[in-house]
Design a protein that fits this description.
heterodimer; A: mainly alpha; three-stranded antiparallel β-sheet; 19 helices; 7% strand; B: 47% strand
Chain lengths: 536, 955
C-alpha cells in the first residue's frame, strides 16, 4: 500500500507539470478553414489579388515556357533551337517544335497545373458568400479564360463546384461539352460584369475582354468538335460577329509597337485585356522574358547600348519561311521599324532582327567569339556550327524597358487587342457568318484587314481570302500566344513545316497528361496515343 | 557473482535514470581499474569483441546499453543495437556527433553532403526508405528528442535567378560538444526503435553524455591544431592546354597572357583549433561535471568557416535523508558561427563561387596590377568596380563581394527529479528545453557581376526562433524475481511541443555605399523590399509507452514494447498511432550442451519484429488553410487530408551472434527486411487545385532487404601491456532497395546550370531502386557530337544511386605506449550523376571564354555538342576511403599530470575511387517538388584532407 501511495503521489506531482492534451493543432500564421477558401470569411478581394499577382495568371501567360510557349513553340512562327551548350533543357523545346513531346514534358505538365490553379482560385471566389456580384463575375470570366486554354490544349476542363468539397475528384468536361460550358460561363460573366472596358481598365476582366474571349470560343468550337477537319456553322460565326460588333471604343494604335511599350497602358488605344506589370514588383512578373528569350547575350537595352543589364539569353527565333510571309520591300513596319527612344539609344530596331546588329554609333556588335553579330535567316533545331550563336531571326515584340532596374519591367502583357478583334470579325465573315459587321474600321473583311495593314505602312487592296488570312494573322499577331489555335482552325497544325518535314501524328492535336495528374483524378483519362512516362 | 551483477546493473540503471544520462561501465574508462593499454583502445564498433582477459570479458557482460527510456544489460539485448563508446570514436576535426561513428556501425551510411565546415550529413540506417525530405534518424541526447529541426534561417539569396536558391543545410547537432559524449547507441531494427513510435522508423541514435562524477576534482584538458587542404581539385585545363583547346577548334577568345589556377585562388590551407576542458568532482550527494570547448575551423574555401563555443554543466544531487530523491540538472549553452561561401545547391548558368572558379579562363589574371579584381566584361577586361554587361564573374568577386553569416545560440537544458519508491522501482520526471535562436545576415555587393544583383546589390537578414519542450515521466522497474527470472520494465508518458517562428527582410538597390548592406536595409529601394514573417503550426506529440524485458536463466530473453503516439499533425481521423514490437533471444552458449565448448565461447540467436513510424511532414499539413501572402493577397495554402498519418515501417530482424576462442573472435550475422508503407508524399492535388500540394499516404511500398556481417578479431594478443597487439574489426552490409506499387512515377533529381532548366535525372518508379537514374542512353562521340539512340528520344533506367554494399574496417595496433588506429570506410555499387561535368565544365564553355574539364578540352569534342542529360554523366561512385589514421603515444603519468597523450591524426587521407568529381560521397540537394534526390553532384563544397596534432592530459 505504501508503494502504491508513493506511486500515486509521484504521479500527481509529475502530472501537475503537464496534463494530457487534446492535440488540437494551433496554426499560428495561417487560418484553418473547412472546405475551400471561398467558403471561409477570407476577403474575396484578397483572393482576387492573389490571382492577379501570382503564378496562376501572370506566370502562366508571361512565362516563355508555359501557355504562351505551348502556343508558339509548337507552331510555324517560333523555334527554340539548341545552341551548343545552351537551351537544350532536356529537349523540351525541340520536342515541342518537332511534335515529339512526351507525357513527362515539364512545361506541358506545368501549364496544365497552372491553368487548373487559376480555375481553382476563381472557383473559390465564386463560392464565397461574401463576394460581390462584380467579384464573382471577374472570377467567372477568368475561369472561363483559363478553361478555354485547357480545352484547346488537353480537350478537357476539369471543374469543381463553387463552394464544393475541394477534396472531391473534379468532374471532367470533355470536348464540345467543355466548350459549351465555357461559353455559357463566359456569357454569364458578360451579363454580370459592371465595367464595359476601356484601355484604362484592360488590366481587370471587363465586358469587352469577355466578348473577345467569346469570339475566340465560338471560332474554336468547330476545332474542338473535330480537330482533324474543323467545320464552322453560320450560327457560331454570327455569334463571333455579334460579340465583335459589341466591342467598341477602341482604335488601332497608330504606332504598332506602342501596344507593347513599357508604358503601353497609356500609349495603346487598342489593348482590351492585359496583365498589369509594374517595375520591380510582382514575383511572377516575367515580361522581360519576351526579349531575354530571343536576343543575343551582347544585345543590351539599358540606358544605352552598353547598359549594365538586360542583355539577352540568345534563344528563340522565328523561321525564314515565316519571315518571308512579310512584304519583301520592308514596307510592313510590323516586320521591323525603329522605335524611339530605344533605337536612338541602342541601335536596335523593333520587330524582326536579321543581319548585322550595330550599336547606336553604327559600330558592329560582336558575338562572344568576337565574330560579327549578324543574325542569319536560317536556323536548325540543333545548332552545331561555328555560327551557332547568331543563327536565326530574332523577334522583338515587347519594347525592352530600360528602367527595369530590378528585372521587373513595366510593360503590361497583352492578351486581347482590337486588331485581333477586327481580324476575327473578318474571319467569321469569311467562314460563313452573315450578321452585318458594324465595326467603325469597316464592314467587310477587306476593309477590316486593310485597316490593320494600313496602320503598319501597307497599302490597301491586298486580296483578302480565308486561305491567306492565316498569314495575315501571323503577321499581325506573331509571338502573341495564339498561333497554335490559329493553325488548328485552318487545319494546318499537323502539317509539315520548315524544321518538321513530316506531317505529325494525329495525337499531337491534343497534349497529354502526366502520370501524377492522372493518378490524382480518376475522372481523367489519358488522351489517345500517349502511353507512359518516357515514351513520346 | 550473480548478486553483484544484478546489483551492479540496478545501480547503474538507477543512476542512469536519475541522471537522465547513461554510461557503460567501461565508458568512463579513465576510471577503469583495468590498466591503461589494451583496454583503453577497445576495438571499434563493439567493445564486446575485444579479446581480453576473462575478467574483462565478464565485466563486458554486465555492460549496459541505452535503449531508450532506460538501459538493459548488453547480454539481455534482443534487438539490433550497436554501441560505440568514446574510446572508439573517430578522432580529428569533428563538428557534430554523427561524424564520430562514421564507418563504425554495420548498415549505417553516414555521408557528408559536402565538405562545408559544419555542413549536414546524410545518415541512412539500413537503406533509403522515404520519398520526402527529413530521412535522417532520430537523435536522442540524454533523453531529449532532437528531430533535426533547427532555428537556422533560410535566406533567398539570388544566386539561382531571382529567387529560389537552395543552400546546403548545416548539421542540426552542431551545438553539441562531441567531447562530452560518453557513448552512442544506434538502434537499428524495429524491435529496438518501436519505443520511439512514430519517430523511430529511420532508426534512432541515442547519445549519452558524460555524467557528473564524485571524488576529488579532476581536470581533463585536450587541445589540437589542424591543417586542412582541399582533398582533390577538379581537373580543368591550364593556360597552355586552354589555348591549345581554343586553337584546335578555331576559336579566338581573350588571351590574358597569364597562367592562373582559379581553384587555387579560392582554396586555402585552412587552420583548425580545438580546445577542450572538463572538470568533475563533488561529493556523493552533490557532484558535477563541467566542460567547455572552443573550436575554430577554417574552411578550405576562402571566407568560409565554422566556429563553436560550448559550455556544459551536468550536476547530480541526492536529497532527503534516505538519499532516495535524486535531482539531475544538465545545461548546455552553445554558440555556433558559420561563415558561408557563395556556394548554392542550384546555381544558375552564370554560376556560384565554385562554378565561376572552375570556369575561369586560365589565361586571365584574377587581379590587375593595382590589386583590383580583374573582371571579364563586355568589351574585354575591366575592374570589377565598373559594371559591365554579361561576361564572366571573377570568382574573387564572389569571395570579396559576398557575405553570408549564420549565428546560432542554443540552450539545451533539463531537470530531472527521480525517486526510488521501492527496491528496484524508480519514478522519474524529466523536463527539457531546447531553445535556439538563429540569425542570418547576407549581402552581395553591387559590383558582383551577377545578372540579378549587379548595379544594385542585395542584402537580407533573417532570424528564427525554435523552442522545443519535452515532459517525460517514467516508472522503471528492475527486479530479480527469483533465481531464474529477472525483469526490466518501464512505462511512461511523454508530452512534446515544438514551436518555430521567424522573420526576414531583404532589399536591393544599395549601390556603391560603403557600409555593410545588412546594416542599412532601409537604404534599399522601397519597391525591392520584401518582408516576411512566419510562425509554423505548433507541433504537439503526446505519447504513452511501455517496455518489458525478461531474462530466464540467462538463456531465454524476451522484450515487448508498445508506444502510442498522438500528434497534432495527424489528420482528425487518425490522431493516434500504435507501434508494437517484440524481440526474442536465445543465449545458446548458456545451454548445457555448449557450456563446456572451448571453441565456441558465445552463441546467441535473436529475432525481432516491430512496427515504427515516420511523421516528418510539415505541421498543418492535414487541414485546409488560408495563408496571407504579400501585399494583401490571400488564398488557400493547403488542402485538408483528415486521414493523414505517419509513414509506417514494418521490420523483421534475425541475427546470430557468436564468439570463438574465448571471444578472441566475435561476430554477428544479421538479416533484415524492412517494408515501408503509407508513404508520405506531397502529391499534386487533382487539377484544378490550389497550386499547393496535398500531403498523402501513398499506396505502394519501399522495400529494403539486407544482411550485415560484423567480425572482430584480436589478431595478435598481448601478454603484457607493453607487447605488440593487433586488433581488427570489419563491418559489411549488403542492402537491396526497391519500390513497388506506386500509383504513378515521381520525377526528381533536378539538374541545374547551363542548358539544364527544369531537366531531371531521377525517378521514383515501381520495380526500381529508389531514385533510379532515368535518362538517355549514350553511345559516345562521333565527329565531335554526342550520339544517342533515337536521337535522344529514348530514355531508360540507367543508374542506381543507392550503395549496395557498405564496408567499414577498423584496425588498432598497440606497442609500448604507441597506438596506431586506422579507419577505412567504403560504399560500393552506387552511381553519381555528374551535373558538374554536364553543365559547368562542358565543351560549350570554350565558346564563351570559360574553362573546361581537361579530358574534354583535349578531346575532339565539338564546341557545339549540346548539353543534354544522358548516361554520359553517370559515373560509378564506389569508393574506399582511409578516413582516419591516428598515431598516439601515451606518456602515462608525468609529474603531476595523470595521463599525458600526444597524437597525430590524418583525416580523409586518401580515397580510392574512379569518380572524377570532388568527392564520391557527394549528395547535392537536387530535390524536385520536395522529393529528395540522391547522388546528384552539382559543384558541392569540396572535401578537405586534414592533419591534426593534438594532446590530451588529465590532472
Amino acid at each position: 500500500m505504501k508503494i502504491i501511495k508513493k506511486i500515486l503521489f509521484f504521479s500527481v506531482v509529475a502530472s501537475s507539470f503537464v496534463a494530457c492534451t487534446k492535440l488540437d493543432e494551433k496554426l499560428n500564421d495561417t487560418t484553418a478553414i473547412s472546405g475551400s477558401a471561398g467558403s471561409s470569411s477570407v476577403d474575396p478581394k484578397a483572393l482576387l489579388e492573389k490571382i492577379y499577382s501570382e503564378a496562376a495568371l501572370m506566370g502562366t501567360f508571361e512565362h516563355e515556357r508555359q501557355a504562351w510557349g505551348l502556343q508558339e513553340h509548337t507552331s510555324d512562327e517560333l523555334v527554340g533551337p539548341t545552341r551548343g551548350g545552351d537551351w537544350d533543357d532536356n529537349g523540351v523545346f525541340r520536342e515541342l517544335h518537332a511534335h515529339t513531346w512526351r507525357l513527362d514534358h515539364a512545361y506541358i505538365t506545368q501549364t496544365f497545373s497552372n491553368l487548373g490553379q487559376l480555375v481553382y482560385q476563381t472557383t473559390e471566389i465564386m463560392g464565397a458568400s461574401n463576394a460581390t456580384t462584380e467579384q464573382k463575375a471577374q472570377a467567372r470570366m477568368l475561369r472561363a479564360f483559363a478553361s478555354f486554354y485547357l480545352v484547346e490544349g488537353w480537350n478537357v476542363v476539369p471543374v469543381r463546384a463553387a463552394g464544393g468539397d475541394p477534396l472531391a475528384n473534379p468532374k471532367v468536361y470533355k470536348g464540345t461539352e467543355a466548350m459549351d460550358w465555357i461559353i455559357k460561363e463566359a456569357e454569364t460573366a458578360l451579363a454580370d460584369l459592371s465595367e464595359n472596358g476601356t484601355v484604362a481598365t484592360a488590366i481587370k476582366p471587363n465586358k469587352n475582354a469577355t466578348r473577345a474571349l467569346l469570339m475566340k470560343c465560338y471560332l474554336m468550337k468547330g476545332v474542338i468538335a473535330n480537330r482533324k477537319s474543323p467545320t464552322y456553322t453560320p450560327a457560331d460565326m454570327n455569334k463571333v460577329i455579334e460579340y465583335g460588333n459589341a466591342i467598341t471604343g477602341y482604335t488601332l494604335t497608330s504606332n504598332y509597337f506602342d501596344n507593347f511599350a513599357p508604358t503601353n497602358d497609356v500609349l495603346s488605344t487598342e489593348n482590351i485585356f492585359t496583365i498589369k506589370n509594374e517595375v520591380g514588383i510582382g514575383g511572377q512578373n516575367q515580361i522581360l522574358t519576351r526579349w531575354y528569350c530571343t536576343v543575343h547575350y551582347n544585345q543590351f537595352f539599358g540606358a544605352d547600348d552598353k547598359g549594365s543589364k538586360l542583355g539577352g539569353w540568345n534563344g528563340f527565333t522565328t523561321l525564314s519561311d515565316f519571315y518571308d510571309k512579310f512584304d519583301a520591300t520592308g514596307a510592313d513596319k510590323r516586320r521591323g521599324a525603329p522605335y524611339l527612344p530605344m533605337t536612338e539609344k541602342t541601335g536596335t530596331r523593333m520587330g524582326f532582327l536579321v543581319g548585322d546588329q550595330k550599336d547606336k554609333d553604327g559600330v558592329m556588335k560582336l558575338d562572344r567569339g568576337n565574330n560579327p553579330l549578324s543574325y542569319t535567316r536560317e536556323v536548325k533545331l540543333v545548332e552545331t556550327g561555328n555560327n551557332l550563336e547568331v543563327t536565326g531571326i530574332r523577334v522583338l515584340k515587347y519594347v525592352p524597358d530600360p528602367a527595369a532596374k530590378e528585372n521587373k519591367p513595366a510593360n503590361d502583357y497583352v492578351i486581347y487587342r482590337y486588331a485581333d478583334v477586327l481580324l476575327m470579325l473578318a474571319e467569321a465573315n469569311l467562314r460563313g457568318g452573315t450578321t452585318p459587321i458594324t465595326a467603325t474600321a469597316g464592314a467587310t473583311p477587306q476593309a477590316l484587314v486593310d485597316a490593320v495593314r494600313v496602320r503598319s505602312g501597307l497599302a490597301t487592296g491586298w486580296a483578302v481570302t480565308l486561305d491567306n488570312l492565316l498569314d495575315e494573322r501571323g503577321r499581325e499577331l506573331y509571338w502573341e500566344g495564339f498561333r497554335r489555335m490559329d493553325l488548328l482552325r485552318w487545319g494546318k497544325f499537323l502539317s509539315a513545316k520548315q524544321l518538321k518535314p513530316a506531317v505529325s501524328d494525329e495525337k499531337r492535336l491534343i497534349f497529354p497528361f502526366s502520370e501524377q495528374q492522372l493518378a490524382a483524378n480518376p475522372n481523367l483519362t489519358q488522351n489517345p496515343g500517349y502511353y507512359k512516362i518516357g515514351f513520346s | 557473482m550473480r548478486f553483484s551483477q544484478t546489483l551492479n546493473m540496478r545501480l547503474k540503471s538507477l543512476g542512469l535514470s536519475i541522471l537522465g544520462t547513461a554510461f557503460a561501465l567501461n565508458a568512463n574508462a579513465q576510471d577503469s581499474p583495468i590498466p591503461k593499454s589494451f583496454e583503453n583502445v577497445a576495438v571499434p564498433t563493439s567493445a564486446q569483441a575485444a579479446a581480453q582477459t576473462d575478467q574483462a570479458s565478464k565485466d563486458k557482460l554486465d555492460e549496459v546499453v541505452v535503449v531508450g527510456y532506460g538501459t538493459v544489460r548488453k547480454k539481455d539485448v534482443t534487438g539490433a543495437v550497436a554501441s560505440v563508446g568514446a574510446k572508439e570514436f573517430n578522432l580529428g576535426v569533428i563538428a557534430s556527433p554523427d561524424q564520430l561513428i562514421q564507418g563504425k556501425v554495420a548498415g549505417v551510411q553516414i555521408a557528408a553532403n559536402s565538405g562545408q565546415p559544419g555542413g549536414a550529413n546524410t545518415i541512412k540506417i539500413r537503406g533509403n526508405s522515404s520519398i520526402r525530405q527529413g530521412n535522417n534518424p532520430l537523435f536522442v541526447v540524454d533523453g531529449i528528442i532532437l528531430d533535426g529541426t533547427t532555428a537556422r534561417p533560410d535566406l533567398d539569396l539570388p544566386l539561382n535567378g531571382e529567387s529560389g536558391s537552395v543552400f546546403p543545410s548545416s548539421n542540426p547537432l552542431n551545438f553539441i560538444n562531441t567531447a562530452d559524449i560518453a557513448s552512442m547507441e544506434v538502434l537499428k531494427d524495429a524491435s529496438a526503435t518501436a519505443i520511439y513510435g512514430s519517430r523511430g522508423a529511420n532508426g534512432v541514435i541515442v547519445i549519452t553524455t558524460k555524467a557528473a562524477k564524485a571524488g576529488e576534482t579532476r581536470l581533463e584538458v585536450g587541445s589540437s591544431l589542424g591543417i586542412a587542404t582541399v582533398a582533390k581539385k577538379i581537373d580543368v585545363m591550364d593556360a597552355a592546354g586552354y589555348m591549345a583547346a581554343q586553337k584546335s577548334r578555331g576559336l579566338s577568345v581573350i588571351n590574358g597572357g597569364s597562367s592562373v589556377d582559379a581553384q587555387e585562388a579560392i582554396f586555402r590551407t585552412a587552420l583548425t583549433q580545438n580546445y577542450n576542458l572538463s572538470a568533475t568532482g563533488g561529493s556523493d550527494k552533490a557532484k558535477f561535471r563541467f566542460s567547455g570547448m572552443y573550436q575554430d575551423q577554417e574552411g578550405v574555401v576562402r571566407n568560409s568557416g565554422f566556429q563553436k563555443v560550448v559550455a556544459n554543466l551536468a550536476s547530480s544531487f541526492k536529497l532527503l535523508q534516505n538519499n532516495k530523491l535524486k535531482l539531475d540538472v544538465n545545461a548546455t549553452l552553445s554558440q555556433t558561427n558559420e561563415s558561408l561561401p557563395a556556394i548554392s545547391n542550384n546555381a544558375d548558368a552564370t554560376g556560384d563561387l565554385l562554378v565561376t572558379a572552375l570556369q575561369w579562363n586560365p589565361t586571365v589574371p584574377l587581379r590587375q596590377a593595382n590589386g583590383m579584381i580583374n573582371a571579364v566584361r563586355l568589351g574585354g577586361l575591366q575592374g570589377a568596380q565598373s559594371y559591365g554587361g554579361d561576361g564572366l564573374i571573377n570568382p574573387l568577386e564572389l569571395i570579396e563581394g559576398f557575405s553570408d553569416k549564420v549565428k546560432m545560440n542554443t540552450i539545451l537544458a533539463s531537470i530531472a527529479p527521480s525517486y526510488e519508491i521501492a527496491d528496484g522501482l524508480v519514478a522519474k520526471f524529466q523536463y527539457s528545453l531546447n531553445s535556439s535562436v538563429g540569425e542570418r545576415k547576407a549581402s552581395i555587393r553591387d559590383w558582383v557581376n551577377k545578372q540579378t544583383t549587379r548595379g544594385s546589390g542585395w542584402a537580407g537578414i533573417s532570424t528564427n526562433n525554435l523552442v522545443v519542450q519535452q515532459y517525460t515521466t517514467t516508472l522503471n522497474y528492475v527486479k530479480e524475481i527469483n533465481k531464474d527470472l529477472s525483469i526490466n520494465a518501464v512505462v511512461g508518458y511523454e508530452y512534446y511541443v515544438k514551436e518555430l517562428k521567424g522573420s526576414s527582410a531583404v532589399g536591393r538597390g544599395f549601390g556603391s555605399v560603403a557600409q555593410d548592406y545588412t546594416n542599412i536595409l532601409q537604404y534599399s529601394t522601397a519597391t525591392t523590399r520584401l518582408v516576411n514573417s512566419f510562425f509554423n503550426p505548433t507541433e504537439e506529440i503526446q505519447s504513452f509507452f511501455g517496455r518489458v524485458n525478461a531474462n530466464y536463466q540467462d538463456k531465454y530473453l524476451a522484450t515487448a514494447t508498445l508506444r502510442a503516439d498522438g500528434s497534432s499533425k495527424f489528420g482528425t481521423n487518425s490522431k493516434y498511432g500504435f507501434f508494437p514490437s517484440v524481440g526474442l533471444a536465445w543465449n545458446i552458449h548458456n545451454e548445457d550442451f555448449l557450456k563446456d565448448n572451448t571453441t565456441l565461447s558465445a552463441l546467441k540467436l535473436r529475432g525481432g519484429w516491430g512496427i515504427t513510424g515516420n511523421q516528418e511532414f510539415p505541421a498543418g499539413s492535414a487541414v485546409s488553410r488560408i495563408a496571407y501572402n504579400s501585399n494583401g493577397a490571400s488564398g488557400q495554402s493547403q488542402l485538408a487530408n483528415p486521414n493523414l498519418q505517419w509513414q509506417q515501417d514494418i521490420q523483421v530482424n534475425l541475427a546470430l551472434e557468436y564468439g570463438l576462442l574465448k571471444n578472441r573472435i566475435t561476430g554477428t550475422v544479421e538479416f533484415f527486411k524492412k517494408t515501408t508503407n503509407n508513404l508520405l508524399y506531397a502529391a499534386n492535388a487533382a487539377d484544378p487545385g490550389p497550386g499547393t500540394r496535398i500531403w498523402k499516404n501513398l499506396d505502394g511500398s519501399i522495400n529494403n532487404t539486407g544482411v550485415e556481417f560484423l567480425i572482430q578479431a584480436s589478431l595478435v594478443q598481448a601478454k603484457t601491456a607493453k607487447d605488440f597487439a593487433l586488433d581488427m574489426g570489419i563491418n559489411y552490409s549488403y542492402i537491396k532497395n526497391s519500390v513497388t506499387g506506386l500509383p504513378a512515377s515521381i520525377i526528381t533529381g533536378n539538374l541545374y546550370g547551363q542548358g539544364s532548366t527544369n531537366a531531371f535525372a531521377e525517378l521514383i518508379a515501381n520495380d526500381q531502386p529508389l531514385n533510379v537514374m532515368y535518362t538517355r542512353p549514350y553511345e559516345g562521340i562521333v565527329n565531335g557530337q554526342s550520339v544517342y539512340p533515337q536521337d535522344g528520344a529514348k530514355f531508360d533506367y540507367l543508374g542506381n544511386p543507392n550503395p549496395t554494399s557498405l564496408l567499414g574496417i577498423n584496425t588498432i595496433a598497440t606497442y609500448m605506449g604507441f597506438t596506431l588506429n586506422m579507419t577505412l570506410n567504403g560504399a560500393f555499387g552506387q552511381s553519381v550523376f555528374n551535373n558538374t561535368d554536364m553543365s559547368v565544365i562542358s565543351v560549350a564553355n570554350l565558346v564563351s571564354g570559360r574553362n573546361v574539364k581537361t579530358s574534354i578540352g583535349s578531346s575532339t569534342e565539338n564546341v557545339a555538342n549540346r548539353i543534354t542529360p544522358s548516361a554520359r554523366y553517370i559515373e560509378s561512385a564506389s569508393y574506399l576511403r582511409i578516413n582516419n589514421l591516428t598515431l598516439g603515444y601515451d606518456f602515462g603519468k608525468v609529474g603531476l599530470v595523470r595521463n599525458f597523450n600526444l597524437y597525430v591524426t590524418a583525416q580523409n587521407l586518401y580515397t580510392f575511387t574512379s569518380y572524377t568529381g570532388y568527392d564520391p560521397e557527394v549528395n547535392s540537394n537536387a530535390s524536385r517538388d520536395g522529393v529528395p534526390s540522391l547522388g546528384i553532384d552539382y559543384v558541392g563544397y569540396p572535401q578537405a584532407r586534414t592533419f591534426i596534432f593534438g594532446l590530451k592530459l588529465s590532472l
